TrEMBL record:
Keywords: Membrane, Transmembrane, Transmembrane helix, Transport. This is Major facilitator superfamily (MFS) profile domain-containing protein. PANTHER family: FACILITATOR SUPERFAMILY ANTIPORTER, PUTATIVE, EXPRESSED-RELATED, MAJOR FACILITATOR SUPERFAMILY DOMAIN-CONTAINING PROTEIN 10. It holds the Pfam family MFS_1. InterPro entries: MFS, MFS_dom, MFS_trans_sf. Residues 1-432 form the Major facilitator superfamily (MFS) profile domain. It is found in: Membrane. Signal peptide: none annotated. It is a multi-pass membrane protein. The lineage of its organism: Eukaryota, Viridiplantae, Streptophyta, Embryophyta, Tracheophyta. It comes from Urochloa decumbens.
Length: 436
């Protein structure tokens, strides 16, 4: 792989296409419908994150031991099995169990980030990480569409599906089967996926015999404990704070837009909110594919993270004042703000991911990404509940003197953003050697 990177002049499109397809297949989940949203659905969504958080470090270590390809292939296979079983669930405990196992056995995120770095030259690494995030964005857009169009087919398409059919008994099986079918094609294509991590023990012994063991030892510094590697841990902590903020933002944005104007919201329908999020998602894909590489080339991962975080603050602060607008005067600033917020969020995520992956040697990259995935998953499991509690509390203080109602909600969001921004500066953030 090293020789291949040295002789290749262009972008490794084949490998990055594999990265994008695998990330897309692993992140493609059916959206929960409106009648499912509530107390039980919250536990259902959290079960996936808890499962992923508990197992991510394990899968990262496995990827460092046996290679990236086997773990990514197994993760896609787990999507095939447990996504189908989720569609066949008839009891709540079955749905919880399958989602938890899907999260625990879908260990793709740690090795796929390492892989996207390892197939690229240093100047192309930003593109590699952005491919992973772009594929995730596509899953966020297309997943809800699949769920919306194919869930409960008996009710939506009574002329094609009957009550006595298997889809009458399992109303969410059809979208799950479609996703599992796509994942099956991806799993088969993994046969052509080149590996990036190899352990050539015989070759290493031969090199030692020719060059002497002292030369080998002098060129390879001893590995640091990951927990004592402050450039890594500071980047992971910063990444987790931003993940907490972004997940809470999505939850609060949806709640705020659909809530009544008398409670400081916009009185949007679910369809209206979906349109805003879809446009924001499309802008995210365009930015990742066309613009992010230039942003990273000019500013680098640290300054791009700082700039995007700072620019997010006035956007969030502007949201509460949009309740005084209506019609096109509301739609234009709302859509622009949502698009910019998505672009800034993905810039931060990609920048901190680059810092994490360049803070460790290749042999520790899977485990390092596993730690980052664990902390991120725990943040994403906590954020929706915390955001919901803050939103409910804020709605009860519509006439307070100090930041009434929705103003308080977005103030709390901004405080989280400010904490993340502060963490991107010295002395907290330790910069990997290549960025000094």
């Amino acid at each position: 792989m090293d020789r291949k990177k040295e002789t290749r002049k262009g972008v490794p499109y084949k490998e990055l296409i594999f990265v994008g397809i695998i990330s897309f297949a692993s992140d493609l989940h059916v959206a929960q419908r409106e009648e499912d949203i509530g107390f039980y659905a919250g536990f259902l969504g959290a079960s996936y994150m808890v499962g992923r958080g508990l197992a991510s470090v394990f899968w990262g270590i496995v990827a460092d031991r046996i290679g990236r390809k086997p773990v990514m292939a197994f993760s896609v296979f787990s999507v095939i099995v447990f996504n189908t079983l989720f569609g066949l669930s008839v009891k709540y405990w079955m749905a919880i169990a399958t989602r938890f196992l899907l999260g625990a056995l879908n260990g793709f995120l740690a090795p796929v980030k390492a892989y996207s770095i390892e197939v690229c030259q240093p100047e192309q690494q930003a593109l590699g990480i952005s491919i992973v995030n772009t594929a995730w964005g596509m899953g966020v857009i297309i997943g809800p569409a699949i769920g919306g169009y194919l869930a409960q087919p008996v009710k939506q398409y009574p002329h094609l599906f009957h009550d006595n059919s298997v889809f009458g008994r399992f109303p969410y099986l059809l979208p799950c089967i479609c996703i599992s079918f796509f994942a099956t094609l991806v799993f088969i294509s993994c046969a052509w996926l080149p590996e990036t991590l190899h352990k050539h023990k015989g070759l290493e012994r031969a090199v030692e015999m020719v060059e002497g063991s002292t030369t080998q030892e002098s060129t390879e510094p001893p590995k640091k404990s990951l927990l004592k590697n402050w450039p890594l841990m500071s980047a992971i902590i910063t990444y987790s704070v931003f993940s907490l903020h972004d997940t809470a933002y999505v939850e609060i944005f949806s709640l705020w837009t659909v809530s009544s104007r008398k409670y400081g919201g916009l009185s949007f329908s679910s369809k209206d909110v979906g349109q805003v999020l879809t446009v924001a998602g499309v802008s995210l894909l365009v930015y990742q594919l066309l613009a992010y590489r230039q942003v990273n080339k000019i500013l680098g991962p640290i300054h791009s993270t700082q700039v995007s975080s700072a620019l997010s603050i006035p956007i969030i602060a502007a949201y509460p004042f949009m309740t005084h607008l209506s019609g096109i005067r509301l739609d234009m600033p709302l859509y622009i703000a949502a698009m910019l917020k998505s672009v800034f969020a993905i810039t931060r995520v990609t920048g901190t991911s680059l810092l994490q992956n360049n803070a460790v040697p290749q042999e520790q990259r899977g485990a390092a990404n596993g730690i980052a995935t664990t902390t991120m998953s725990l943040a994403k499991a906590f954020a929706p509940a915390g955001a919901g509690i803050i939103f409910s509390w804020a709605q009860k203080r519509q006439h307070a003197t100090f930041f009434p109602g929705d103003h308080m909600v977005f103030l709390v969001l901004n405080l989280t953003e400010v904490i993340g921004l502060v963490l991107t500066f010295k002395p907290f953030l330790a910069v990997p050697q290549q960025y000094k």
